[in-house]
Design a protein that fits this description.
The structure holds 2 protein chains of 2 kinds. A two-stranded antiparallel sheet of chain A has the order 1-2. Chain A has 2 domains: about 20-60; about 70-270, Fumarate Reductase Cytochrome B subunit (Up-down Bundle). Helices cover about 65% and strands about 5% of the residues of chain A. Chain A is mainly α. Helices cover about 20% and strands about 25% of the residues of chain B. Chain B has helices at about 5-20, 35-55, 110, 140-145, 170-175, and strands at about 1-5, 95-100, 105, 115-125, 130-140, 155-160, 165-170, 180-185, 185-190, 200, 215-220. In chain B, the strands form 2 sheets. In chain B, strands 3-2-11-6-7 form a 5-stranded mixed β-sheet. In chain B, strands 4, 5, 8, 9 and 10 form a 5-stranded antiparallel β-sheet that branches. The termini of chain B are far apart. Classes of the chains: A mainly alpha, B alpha+beta. Chains A and B meet through helix 1, helix 2, strand 1, helix 4 and helix 5 of A and strand 1, helix 1 and helix 2 of B. Strand 1 (about 60-65) of chain A pairs antiparallel with strand 1 of chain B.
Chain lengths: ~280, ~240
Amino acid sequence: MFMSNEEQNQEEQHEENRDKAPPSKPDPVNESCTVEVTAVKVEAAGEPVLAEPVAKAKEPELIRAAYEHPLPIRLTHWVNAISLFVMITSGLRIFRAFPTFGPKIPEKVLLDIPKSITLGGWLGGALQWHFTFMWFFVASGVFYLAYQVCSGHYRTVLFTPRDVPGVWPMVRHYFFFAPKPPAAGQYNPLQKLAYTSSVAFGALSLLTGIVLYKPAQFSWLAFLFGGFHLTRIWHFAAMCGFLAFIPGHLIMVLLHGWSNFFSMLSGWKREPEYQE
Amino acid sequence: MITRLEDRELKRQSRRQLLKLAPVAVLGVFAFPKISDRLVAAGVRFSDWASAELFRSQHRAQTFADSEVVPFAKFPYNGYDVLDPEVDLEKWTLMVEGDVQRPGEYTLAQVQALPKISQNTRHVCVEGWDVVGSFGGARVSDFLKLVGANTGARFVEVECADDYYESIDMATALHPQSLMCYEMYGAPLDRMHGAPLRLQMPTKLGYKQAKYLTVVRVTNVLKPGKTGYWEDQGYSWFGGL
C-alpha cells in the first residue's frame, strides 16, 4: 500500500509540474477538477472511442475522504509522542535511583529497570531530559486541550456516558472475534475511552509531577494527593496508564494500515471506514 | 465529515498538510548528543528560572507533629567522599566573607546565641526518597543579620570541611524555615550528619543542605563551574521544593 501510494505520488508530481505552467493557483477543489476533466478529455479524444466513455470522463472518479486531524491536533500529537517517549524513558532512569516506594532505610529494590531502556545515562542527566521535555509535554497538552475545547472538535473524541454501552461490543470485537459493531462516527466508543483516558493520564502525570517538583510551593496540591510520598506512587501510576495505552494504540495503528497512520501526518484519510 | 474529491486533489491536499508538520522535525536536534547535552542543560536553567519565580518567600513548607517524625536511626545520611571529615569540634570556627559588614571567624556559641528554631520538616532527596526529621538551629536570616550581610546580594555560598560546596539564592536564605542547623532530634548534630553546623532548608532538595560548614560567603557572582558540587555535574542549581 505504501509503495503504491509513493509511486502514485511521484507520477502525480510529474503531472503537476506539467500543469504548473499557468501561474494562477488552482486552489479550490472545483477548479482543479476542471483541469483534470480537460486532461482526461484530451486523452479520451486521442483514442477512437464511442460517445459513452466520453460521457464517463466528464465525471471524474471521486474518492471518499475525510479531513480527520486538523493541524493543531497533528502537531500536538507528534510533539506529545516525542515528549512522552522522553518523559517515560528518563523517568524510568530517575526511578532507578530509588526503585521503590518504601522507606530509604531499609531500601528494598521493587523494580530493577534495565539501564538499556532508559534515557539520560545517570540520575542528573535523566533529570535534565525530564525537566526540559516536561515543558514540551505540558505545552502540547495545554494547546491540545484548548484547541479541542475552542473548536468543538472534542465532541468527536470525548468519552461520555452515552458511549458506555458501546464499549463492550468493541471489546468483544477486538479480543473475542465478535462481529464489528457498525461505526457511527470517527471514533468508536472504545477508542474514545482510550483517548480520553490518555488525556486523563497526562493530567494526572502533570499534577503529580508538579507536586514532586515543588511540594512546598504547591503544598495544597500535595495535600490533595495524600502527601509527597504517596504522590510519587500516583506519578508512577500515571506512567503505567500510558504504558497500557501505548502498545494498544500502536497495535491498532499497525492493524489499520497505512492510510489510517498517514492521516495523523497529513490530516486526510482516504476511504474512511465510517459513513456520514 | 466525509467529502468526495479527486485522487489528485486528495494527494495535493495531503502533501500540503504534511509539509505543515515540518516544525516538529526541529525536535530532531535532540537526537544528536553534542547538541542535546547543551539543550537539556538550558532546559534545566529555564526550569530553575521558573522555580525561582514560583518561590514564595514567606510560604512555609509543611511541618509535622513529633509523632510523624521517623526515628533518628532511620534518617539516612549521604556522604560525598568521606562519611566523617573529622572536624576538630573544639577549634572549629565559621569563616564569614564577602558582602558583609562584619566578616571574620564566628564560633558555634555565637550561632547558638541567636533565637533557636526547632522544626519537624520533610527532607527530600533528589533520588526520590523523603523523610521527616527534627531539626534545631538558628535562622540563616538571623545569622546574616548578625554578620551584617547585604541581603540585597544575590547568593549565599558555603564551603565545607569535606570539600563539598554549595550556593543558594538569597530569597531562600532569608526564608523563615532556612536554618543554620546544629541540632537533630534535640541532640547536637553528630559527625555523620554534618557536625557541628549544616544548612537545613525544607524548601530545598537534600543536596543543597551542605554539611560540615566552614565558610559562608555573601556574593553577587557565582564562579562558573563552582556553583555546587552536584550542580556542576548537572543537577539543577535552584533545587527548590
